Amino acid sequence: MCYNKKMEKLEHVTKKLPNRQIFTSKDASRAGVSRYYLSKLIAAEKIIELQKGVFQNNSCRPDEEDLQETTFRAATARLKERGVICLLSALSYYDITELIPSNIWLWVPYPYRVSSLKTIRVKDPDFSVGVEQHDGFSITTIERTIIECFLYPKYVPVSESFACLKSALKDKKTTMKKLLATAEQMRVTRKIYPFIEIALSQL
User: What are the start-end ranges of the H helices in 19-173?
Assistant: First the structure.
């Protein structure tokens, strides 16, 4: 097949892709695009493989400031929108930590899991409290994120949780009132109140 014919074929295949910024290999398969042609589209720089099995149209290449949200959308797509961005990834999103997680952290219900993501599986997770809906992904609010850091010290060191709490309060990204309101909704006020008191005394 000559070069022009090959390009015409790729253009035709590109038009068959799902009409959205991020899609999975299964989405492409349902649209009639095989894995063979996905590899051809990647080689031709028509699409970008963000993660294994997750792709983005090259025309929607994100700006630097949108890259984090794009990776969140990709991670959410891999979990078929079952996960919620949390803990270290959420702390980084709210810019209250200097730690940079190597993977995307998400709460997910049993039994879902993706090896390339930091999936924290919980039974019957309550995503009705302290979760914000964004374009293509969900993330715990800054209040729920901070609270859960203290609740799960095996994932985030207590010293880092204190640093993030003090940073959020000092920069007025949240308030003690909002933190306590969220803690009450989560039914963990007694566990969290002492940490908030200590942080306030150190500001």
Answer: 25-30, 35-43, 67-78, 87-93, 142-151, 158-170
Bridge-based pairing state of the strands 131-134 and 118-122: unpaired
Cα separation values, 47 from 21, 25, 58, 78, 203, Å? 10, 12, 5, 17, 48
Q: Which of 88, 92, 6, 87 is nearest to 43 (CA)?
A: 6
pLDDT digits (tens, 9 = 90+) for 82-119: 899 999 999 999 999 998 888 899 999 887 777 767 88
The C-alpha atoms of residue 88 and residue 106 are separated, in whole angstroms, by 9
Could you tell me the two tokens for 81? 């929108």
Task: Catalogue all structural domains in the chain, each as residue range(s) with its CATH number.
Answer: 3-60 (1.10.10), 66-201 (no CATH)
